[in-house]
Amino acid sequence: MNDILKYIDDNKNRYMDELVEFLKIPSISSDSRYNNDVLRCAGRLKEYVIDAGIEDVRMIETEGHPIVYAEWKGAGENVPTILIYGHYDVQPVDPLNLWTTPPFEPEIRGGKLFARGTADDKGQMFSHVKAIEAYMKTKGKLPVNIKLLFEGEEEAGSSNLEKFIQDNAEMLACDAALISDTEWFAEGVPSLCYGLRGVQNVEVTVNGPNRDLHSGSFGGAIDNPLNVLCDMISSLKDKHGRITIPGFYDNVLELTDVEREGFKTLPYDEKAYCDDLSIESVNGEIGFTTLERVWARPSLDLNGIYGGYTGEGSKTILPSKATAKISMRLVPHQTPAEVVEKIEKHLKSIAPPTVTIEFTNLHGGTPVLVERESKPVDAAMTALEKAFGKKPVFMREGGSIPVVDQFRVVLNVPSVLMGFGLPSDNIHSPNENYSVENYYGGIKTSALFLDEMSK
Ligand code: BES
Ligand code: ZN
């Protein structure tokens, strides 16, 4: 392995330059104005994979953005096949004025590389491409068989990926999936994630009178849809921070004592957590710690609410309708389908007869727990320890990666969630960044993981 690790050290500067070039492409998947850039990004990624020494690379069209897929089967039949997943698309960049340097002009400051997509997920995904290159250039081959599955729609809900996986299950057959799209517990604390929350996003519109009305002529006489919507939403949680939708907790897997004890051993500092967010204190479901709430308990949040007048000054109206966007984070064994049915039924049941409700199921993703005692997890723990010189900790995450459940259900394989992000990376936010040390360490970890998997 030493020659491979040396190759990575010797090529650090070029590895950084190439990542910077990759980050300059604004591959924002949810905004159609960037469709050409997303396409260009996929094309560039394909070239990077070819440059790494993998010739069998394809750009596969979908109804949305293309999938970049590659295979290398030279390790033979008695050796495992690893499916490496990542996403080359990024989140939108607004509010632009809060970025210190422009989101698509990467810059290194204080050991961190700033740009949209550095940590989520271009930088993390790129680690694997560069590890493969180091292997191929040093040894002329990889120690295991590899399939690369890079999508361009993760930040827009992966709407075409599920069908792609179902339609191509045979092609994607593997022994384990490897995903680097998660965070460490803290800087300097190498971590392996074994659980992700799921998600279900919905939109609800309350319709009232057939037009906006003068608040003097009508106020007090009829139900205002915006007031109704606010009442409905505020009733979705009680004073103990529990969600009031009937049956919402039915399938929630309770934490075991072993897990709770495990969480307590992590270096969590509530004061630092609050200070970082400029808040006085945390708040959530009674009876649970912050880590338990975020990693192992479901949540319900209003993402946005609109209706009526929101411009300068006042406008004295009763709006004819109002809309709210709501996201719920789910935990095993809740399912998006079950939860969406429960919330729709509940919202319709609590709406007064004076309004009508329109309900839309946006998208969802299933929560996951990965078996901790397995060869791929052992390989990842060993690789992290060798690359960073410290024993990694186990953790869960509050975010979602819907493809993990599809790998489990359709391909029948576990996913190793071996991420290199940090809580300070500002993913989905202005000034997204990625630790330069973790970028290089991630490349080494990826190479070491492949080596461990071949043993
Ligand atoms: N990389 C994140 C998932 C993540 C976030 C992992 C925080 C660990 C910590 C991923 O790109 C993401 O944002 N996923 C979406 C999924 C959704 C669009 C279905 C999410 O969690 O909101
Ligand atoms: Zn991501």
Overview features:
single chain; 455 residues; alpha+beta; Aminopeptidase; Alpha-Beta Plaits; 6-stranded mixed beta sheet; 4-stranded antiparallel beta sheet; 18 strands; 35% helix; binds ligand BES; binds zinc ion
Descriptive report:
- The protein is an alpha+beta fold and 455 residues long.
- It has helices spanning 2-10, 12-23, 35-51, 118-139, 161-167, 215-218, 225-234, 257-264, 270-277, 290-296, 336-350, 375-388, 403-411, 436-454; strands at 56-60, 67-72, 81-87, 107-109, 112-114, 145-151, 176-179, 191-196, 198-207, 213-214, 299-307, 317-318, 321-330, 356-365, 368-369, 393-397, 415-417, 433-435.
- It folds into two domains: 2-196 and 367-454, Aminopeptidase, CATH 3.40.630; 222-252 and 298-364, Alpha-Beta Plaits, CATH 3.30.70.360.
- The protein is 35% helix and 21% strand.
- The strands form five sheets. A six-stranded mixed β-sheet has the order 1-2-6-3-7-17, sandwiched between helices. A four-stranded antiparallel β-sheet has the order 11-13-9-14.
- A hairpin with a 6-residue loop joins strand 1 (56-60) and strand 2.
- The protein is globular and about 80 Å long.
- The relative contact order is 0.19.
